[in-house]
Amino acid sequence: MRSHAAAKTEPAAIEAEIAHLRPLAFDALRQRWRTIFGRLPPAALSKDLLGRMIAWRLQERAFGGLDRESLSFLEGLARHGGSPRRRLKPGTVLVREHRGQRHMVTVASDGFEWQGTTYASLSAIARAITGTAWSGPRFFALRPNGVLPTAVTRSAW
After folding, report:
1. Gap between the Cα atoms of 80 and 82, Å rounded
2. 111 φ/ψ sector (left φ>0, alpha ψ -120 to 50, else beta)
3. Three-state secondary structure of the chain
4. Residues 68, 70, 71, CA angle at the centre, nearest 5°?
5. Which of 63, 80, 97 is the last residue of a domain?
6. Which are the contacts of 48, defined by CB distance < 8 A and separation ≥ 6?
7. Considering 14, 40, 93, 105, which has the largest number of Cβ atoms within 10 A of its Cβ?
8. Are residues 100 and 142 in the same domain?
9. What are the φ and ψ backbone dihedral angles of 117, each rounded to 5 degrees?
10. 59-84: pLDDT as tens digits
11. Can you give the residue range of the structural domain that contains 9?
């Protein structure tokens, strides 16, 4: 017969425990948090986030946490206020069609070249093309438009 601890590490057992979290009321989730984390949950956490964090901790205990490299990467992001900026290699050509005209921008070591002029930012080029303020990375499709696909935005924990 398997021990209780071994049964907890089976994926089906963890999945069942997580499924049991979904219908819990907010206060019941806060109590479950206290049991799992040994302290009160932060007051600002929503029911959805409480459930996700509890589910993550259950999985972490059963299957192990992040490796040292991942933890180090995440700590660096937290220390420096976000993800590192995307680095485009010099020579990369960005193409954008706007109002029927194709615009080609070449990444240079000291900025971005467009129509024979070097600009410090893609936003300056986007502004020159459109006549209005634009996020350059968004204009050239280097940054998502802020709308995630429906499947990603739905709560699935």
Report:
1. 6
2. left
3. CCCHHHHHCCHHHHHHHHHHHCCCCHHHHHHHHHHHHCCCCCCCCCHHHHHHHHHHHHHHHHHCCCCHHHHHHHHHHHHHCCCCCCCCCCCCEEEEEECCEEEEEEEECCEEEECCEEECCHHHHHHHHHCCCCCHHHHCCCCCCCCCCHHHHCCCC
4. 65
5. 80
6. 155, 157
7. 105
8. yes
9. -120, 140
10. 999 999 999 999 888 888 888 766 55
11. 4-80
Report the relative pairing of strands 117-119 and 111-114 from DSSP bridges: antiparallel
Q: How far apart are CA 98 and CA 81, in angstroms?
A: 33
Residues 36 and 49 in one domain: yes
Structurally, the chain folds into a number of domains equal to 2
Same-domain status, 91 and 36:
no
Q: 136 and 122 in contact (C-beta within 8 Å)?
A: yes
pTM equals 0.48
| Among 46, 80, 114, residue at a domain's last position | 80
pLDDT tens track for 92-145:
999 999 999 999 999 998 899 999 999 999 999 999 999 999 999 889 988 654
